[in-house]
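Progress narrative, work stream C.
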Amino acid sequence: MDAGYPHFPATRHPFRDSFSDARVNQTNLPGARATGEGTNVSVMAGTSGWQYRDWRGAFYPPGVPQRRWLEHYAEQFATVENNGTFYRLPARETFEAWRERVTSDFIMTVKASRYLTHVRRLRDPAEPVQRLMAAAGGLGDRLGPVLLQLPPDLRAAPALLAECLRQFPPGVRLAVEPRHESWWTDQTRDVLTGRNAALCWSDRGGAALSPLWRTADWGYLRLHEGDGDPWPRYRPATLSTWAERITAAWAADADVYVYFNNDQHCAAPYDAAAFAAAVAGRGRATARAWSGPGG
């Protein structure tokens, strides 16, 4: 689970309605088209990681050995956000092995190495980006977006961010999660929109942690810690609110990736499943999601 976010009380929600800003009207986005009432969004819900021992017995059946957890996960969810790559970038052969272990329609999002975002702090990005993509390329067609989570004390540096984004191959989807309030400027938004990179929407405790800007013709949402009982689960009302936001924000054929990072006590799989159900309940298209124990 990530830390280091500014926290806004759940009653405040300072960014709740900012996607209604005319400057981010979805018809202004590359490849986007206007939506009408009743259109569908291709929503892929999953969790941030899959190797959590306290999921044994709750998400992973007792008879499934840990070495087979990824296979089991991929049968339940169509996507995962690989957070482990932030701490240590595996060899290309490891990514290739993951590709062989998941279903043909599975998508693995990769979190960029902290060497790029936290050690280099976006400076001189060419070599770490090349190394990241050379390794992650082992996923082939299973590779999803690359997430760049910025340090909480990294103040806005749009020029550095733009140069970093330029180092990635044009076809790679990039999501950026700034965590310092100085980033919420038109200049930041322009950098992201120019690359069709998604501003990562995020939540902690039922509160939005960023403006809800649409900077790409696809979306990315991370939910870090719930506001429900038992902790750290999310309340159904909060999940419903986020489901409404994303289905209102993106076009019918847009991809939206949603990951739950509240891994303690197996909260993330339950919430990801409940979120997918909330989206489907609005008549929206969703990728497969866990149906719960025994499902």
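Work stream C, second folded protein:
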Amino acid sequence: MRVWADLTNTAHVVVLRPLIELLERRGHEVEITARPLSHTTELLDDWGHAYTVIGQYGGAGRTGKVRAAASRIPALIRFGRRGRFGYGLGHASIDLPPACRALRIPNTTMFDYEWATTQHNVICRLATRVLVPDAIPAERLRRYGARPPKLVRFPGLKEEYYLADWEPDEAVLMQLRLERDRPLCVIRTAPSYALYLGGSENPLLPPLIERVADGETQVVVLARNELQRAAVHSLGAPNVTVPERAVDGRSLVAYADVLVSAGGTMNREAAVLGTPVWSIFEGRLGAVDEMLVEQGRLKILRDLGQVTVERKPADAFEKRTRRDIGELLRLAIPGAERS
């Protein structure tokens, strides 16, 4: 089978890479298209898998996003027509389902946050299959046109599948000149380019950075673009590292003693890997995060005094729940277990 994977955001590389690698081990051919947003192409370059860049970022507003999609979808259709694909796979790519529908290519869209209403009204109606965690109540997805048998729900978190056999790499500590025996706080900025945030930045971040960068604690701020990096540098806080490009975020989270983040996937990785995590997400809380908050695996940051950086057990990530990535692939692409 020839499979087409469309990656439109940084997290999509992390989420779909294990599925793509499993597909290729089973003898399927996979071609990747990518939208150059945030660290998406940097992570693809680090992976070393061939990909084709199509489209551009349309900005944080609705009008710009519509214009970007209007130009990208025809380009994807031209790409897909040449590829003779048997199936398409995306993680909340708003462009792949329309292109696949035009080309009559069956396709699956995955996501684990249900309140991106504009996006889901498009992808849920046009995709062949909608794959979500079972923490999301089915009734929340009906208004998007996602009902069984199109709607397929899997147990647990997607991170429990793709992190099952993964082990952290200490190379990221050396790359960023971090000391293993000192406290480490990782901060992930908000995706200010997302439609639901409209370009806003979280006002808690500057005072938080200044507070935790106390000289003993090492602080790494993972900014999403150059404007955010410049804003962090302008604080002049000591002992703060702001990488200029993508780094091994999963390993960094595994070795961190605390994560403060606006990123959904990184927050859930921390919860799975046993790293204390505070969310500064400003959108409406989704069912997955509601579940993690109820379980005490995710906390919502309301006041800076809530955050303390204390050393966690070095092997905390060894206790994670591990699920079969092959089972997730079976649900994502029917027949993928056969070459």
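The radius of gyration is 20 Å. No further action is required on this item.
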